[in-house]
Amino acid sequence: MTARRVAMRRAAHQLLDHPRVLEDPIALRILDDESRKAVESDAAGFEGGRMAPYLRAFLVARSRLAEDELAVAVERGVRQYVVLGAGLDTFAYRNPHEASGLHVFEVDHPSTQDWKRERLRDSGLEIPASLTFAPADFEHRTLSQILATAGFREDEPGWFSWLGVTMYLTHAAVRSTLQFVGALPANSGIVFDYGLDPRLLNFAQRLIRHAMAQRVRAAGEPWLSAFEPAKLIAELRTLGFRDTQDWADTDLNARYFADRSDGLRVGSVARVVVAAR
Known about the structure:
The chain is α/β, with parallel strands linked by helices. Helix content is 42%, strand content 14%. Strands 3-2-1-4-5-7-6 form a 7-stranded mixed β-sheet, sandwiched between helices. Helix 6 links the parallel strand 4 (159-162) and strand 5 (189-195). Helix 1 runs parallel beside helix 2 (33-41) and helix 1 packs across helix 3. The longest helix is centred in the N-terminal third of the chain and has 24 residues, at 52-75.
């Protein structure tokens, strides 16, 4: 359910916001008929609420940041890109680095991947040769085993995107994934977002967080973790990441939303981290 809603917001961005922060010509196409009609008929109102534009801005900004950082990694010679919890992410189907040899691995729950394959088939989108699906059955296999089966090389650098996932995992599960990436060769790295510890939020932010948490819990996908930025960055350094950047709302707004005439900007109870080896 959350993957569907995120995809709808990315699609709404293509219709509502100019200039676009994230150019995604496939965003509408990959949606199911019901979702696409909801966005096309009322892109501004399908979600409702005053916070909808702020959340939409955060979702497209985190994807744009991930793709910008990937481009830098490709320039450094990285040729493996792993999208963890891919959902309906469309990068692999508009991969601008395919000619450079970038191979994409989409990791997700098997049922979610079956749903995505159905969406691709119904949309007439072909699965490129530069993409490998890696079904994630974490009850029986580690991330290392899942990726190895898909052809990922741990003796070569890899770049990871992990968006909209960590808040649904325990701290131990988050650390396990970061530890895996932190042990890969130099020039490897990861972009991920995380929920801020409620103790660091003001009253209005806590109300927003509570409302969002209630919504995802009702959908059967409760939030399980949140972090303090300073402690998280310190932990990343112990895991082998030499360069870490913690992107708050103000940072994302300065980079991607400055001087806009429509007032679109990020307002979120989450942040985005870029961590490189």
